[in-house]
């Protein structure tokens, strides 16, 4: 089974700060997903990547397949970025579904 | 366009009751996934359908859990004789085909077993 570790588990920052969330996994995969979940809300897919780097607005995701590591960056953070950010990988480690990290709870204070 | 919908959004069941949770995927999406998310945890995989075929049910926690997608569209997750440890949010996601395409998640069904 693939093990997915995220760090930090909790992060509080001031508006405008540059944010980095890290994800590492144990078994080779075909793709890695970064997801956003607001309290009481559904999950929104931010990125799906298998190599290199993707950018969407203030969000940047990178992946290093050899090191089995990915990072999600948020530039010029804003209070509306406050949410849980979840890293998920798949397939790999047996099951056909995604294997998820426990999430990083991000709070951006004004 | 319509996204993934799930019903009911909230369900309270007494221990021992059977429940049925429904998922309507995005039209045309071949693959459908069910996940279970316990409070404060990341989701965990339950089962996966490609059209009407259940290709992987390795994540179902016990034989009390059963999922079906008889016509390759709507799916139902059924939990028999619910237990308190079944309390969680049950998420459904769909994708064009398999894991090589982005997954779109429904809002989830929050099940509370009392």
Kindly, what is the distance between the CA atoms of the first and last residues of chain B, rounded to a whole number of angstroms? 37 Å
Low-confidence stretches of chain B: none
Evaluate the radius of gyration of chain A: 13 Å
Assembly state here?
A: heterodimer
Look at the structure and give the mean pLDDT of chain A: 91
Strand content of chain B: over 45%
- Biggest pleated-sheet summary of chain A: 6 strands, mixed
Q: What is the strand tally of chain B?
A: 11
Number of helices of chain A: 0
Structural class category of chain A: mainly beta
Order of helices and strands of chain B: EEEEEEEEEEE
Separation, N- and C-terminal Cα atoms of chain A: 40 Å
Count of DSSP E strands of chain A?
11
Average pLDDT of chain B? 93
**Strand content range of chain A:** over 45%
Largest sheet of chain B: 7 strands, mixed
Helix-and-strand structural type of chain B: mainly beta
Largest interface (CB < 8 Å):
A-B, 25 and 27 residues
Structure description:
The complex is a heterodimer of chains A (110) and B (114). Chain A is mainly β and 110 residues long. Chain A has strands spanning 4-7, 10-14, 19-25, 31-37, 43-49, 52-56, 59-64, 69-74, 83-90, 99-100, 104-109. In chain A, strands 2, 4, 5, 9, 10 and 11 form a six-stranded mixed beta sheet that branches. In chain A, strand 4 (31-37) and strand 5 form a beta hairpin. The model of chain A has no long low-confidence stretch (mean pLDDT 91). By secondary structure, chain B is an all-beta fold. In chain B, the strands form two sheets. In chain B, strands 2, 4, 5, 6, 9, 10 and 11 form a seven-stranded mixed beta sheet that branches. Chain B is globular, with a radius of gyration of 13 Å. The mean pLDDT of chain B is 93. At the A-B interface, strand 4, strand 5, strand 9 and strand 10 of A face strand 5 and strand 10 of B.
